[in-house]
Amino acid sequence: MTPGKLSLAVRSVAQHISIIDIHGDVTGAADSALTDAYTSASTSSTIILNFTALEYMNSSGIGLLVTLLIRAQRQGQRLLAFGLTEHYRDIFELTRLNEAITLFNIESDVLESLNISRI
Question: What's the pLDDT tens digit per position in 14-49?
């Protein structure tokens, strides 16, 4: 993947639970793609962000996540995440995003916390 590229995929893992798979860079340029992915997942009451394939995120990208969080909160949705590297986990802690977006290490940990088993 070339620098600055972003690919997002939305998948449903259970009724009212969607995962947004993030591949590439989350920067200011990701605004419309992230909004489209959220809109696609917005019928879910729980939205999980998969950062496993995140390559880079800057302060503008963090700002987009805050905007996404605000939208989710207004809709009464839960926002969870997994797959952040230690560096980005530290950033979530510094910005206190980890207080609003529950973080997990891997997808199975998230699904287990939601009492969902994968076949």
Answer: 999 999 999 999 999 999 999 999 999 989 999 999
Which of 20, 38, 10, 13 lies closest to 115 in space, CA to CA? 13
Kindly state the percentage of the chain with pLDDT values over 70.
Answer: 94
CB atoms within 10 A of CB 43: 12
Q: Pull the structure tokens for residue 30.
A: 């990701």
| Phi–psi pair at 23, nearest 5 degrees | -125, 115
Domains with residue ranges and CATH for the chain: 6-106 (3.30.750.24)
| Distance between CA atoms of residues 21 and 1, nearest Å | 15
